[in-house]
UniProtKB/TrEMBL annotation:
The gene is pstA. This is Phosphate transport system permease protein PstA. InterPro entries: MetI-like, MetI-like_sf, Phosphate_PstA, Phosphate_transprt_permease. Pfam families: BPD_transp_1 (PF00528). It is found in: Cell membrane. GO terms for cellular component: plasma membrane. Part of the binding-protein-dependent transport system for phosphate; probably responsible for the translocation of the substrate across the membrane.
Length: 362
């Protein structure tokens, strides 16, 4: 007599009706290949000037979304197909959002690297340079000094304001501070520059005043709300149990904040400060108004005009001389230098957050 096990073949229901492993990756690569072939045919036929890399990635990703949905619906059913489609759409949104960043970095590196690698680019200024040559040292020094002074102004004010809002602030004053911080967050950068210019023009009775410290004041107006918001959120993440434990031991509130709250949230606070610096270091309009521009070195924040990297890029592109290509190359190289500085600041923010974050050991 034949048993039931011999008559019925064994099947693995867990693997039946599924696309092969890594099928999504292969379908994505195939979609990009088809899209690349299409744009290559357009290029070879002479209908377009060059091969469109961005179009290849975008249309290839759209083709992938359609292909993965159709194949999954045929093999796995409608429910799994919808899941794969939503995953593909999220991935496509990530790729499309990443394309502008990749394009900007690629274009800046390609156009700015030749002048960036010039030996004199980081060791000289633009004094008495009317054509090719010269460097960006004066702009780097100006950027570091102006941004450093803005940080010295903004961090104490922003941190103390956030401590007040979290630990002490109640009633109308706290609500007013929160409202004005929100308003300052959305202030256009050129308004900050006009504010600093009007302030010092009235104080010194000089309608043509230009100096680096004024640029620091303008940048601090933009930095303070960012520092307040980031520090406030970090302070709110500190568990109330830590505060209550310190109060139960008889520790005063100010000492609890200094010894318990701030050390616990220091990683997030420092990260927010570094990101606020990276946010304002590329501002052009306020520095162009109040700090001005010059081709010479200036180590005095309180005297004469001071060049910064964003203004250097702007002036090199806007005020081209007889050898226009040299000015454009220096502008791209200055932009590349600024991108490198911002990337270093973001990297430092991540490292500091890792080093100072509380270690939860058993």
């Amino acid at each position: 007599m034949t048993s039931v096990l011999d008559a019925t073949p064994l099947t693995n229901s867990l693997t039946a009706g599924k696309l092969p492993r890594r099928s999504s990756l292969w379908i994505l690569l195939a979609s990009w290949a088809v899209s690349a072939a299409f744009f290559a045919m357009l290029f070879l036929s002479g209908n377009v000037d060059g091969f469109n890399i961005v179009g290849t990635v975008v249309f290839g990703t759209v083709l992938y979304c359609v292909a993965i949905y159709v194949l999954s619906r045929l093999v796995e059913g409608s429910r799994k197909a919808k899941d794969r489609l939503m995953t593909a759409l999220v991935t496509a949104a990530f790729v499309i959002a990443l394309l502008p960043l990749v394009s900007i970095v690629y274009t800046t590196v390609v156009n700015g690297l030749p002048a960036f690698l010039t030996p004199t680019f980081f060791t000289s200024s633009q004094r008495n340079v009317v054509g090719a040559g010269g460097g960006v040292l004066h702009a780097i020094i100006g950027t570091l000094m102006v941004t450093g002074m803005a940080t010295l102004i903004s961090v104490p004010i922003g941190l103390l304001a956030s401590i007040y809002l979290v630990e002490y602030g109640r009633g109308r004053l706290a609500r007013a501070i929160t409202f004005f911080v929100d308003v300052m967050t959305g202030i256009p950068s050129i308004v900050a520059g006009l504010f600093a210019f009007a302030l010092f023009a009235l104080l010194f009775d000089d309608p043509g005043i230009r100096f680096g410290f004024g640029g620091s004041i303008a940048l601090s107006v933009l930095m303070i709300p960012v520092v307040v918001r980031s520090s406030e959120e970090m302070l709110k993440l500190v568990p109330n149990e830590l505060r209550e434990a310190a109060f139960a031991l008889g520790v005063p509130k100010w000492l609890t904040i200094l010894k318990v709250v701030l050390p616990t949230s220091i990683a997030g606070i420092v990260t927010g400060v570094m990101l606020s610096i990276a946010r304002v270091i590329g501002e052009t309009a306020p520095l162009l108004i109040i700090a001005g521009f010059t081709s010479s070195m200036n180590y005095d924040l309180f005297g004469e005009r001071m060049m910064t990297l964003p203004v250097f890029v702007y002036t090199q592109y806007a005020n081209q001389g007889a050898d226009s290509q040299a000015f454009i190359d220096r502008a791209w190289a200055g932009a590349l230098t600024l991108i490198v500085i911002v990337m270093v600041l973001n990297g430092l923010a991540r490292l500091i957050a890792h080093w100072f974050s509380p270690k939860l050991g058993r």
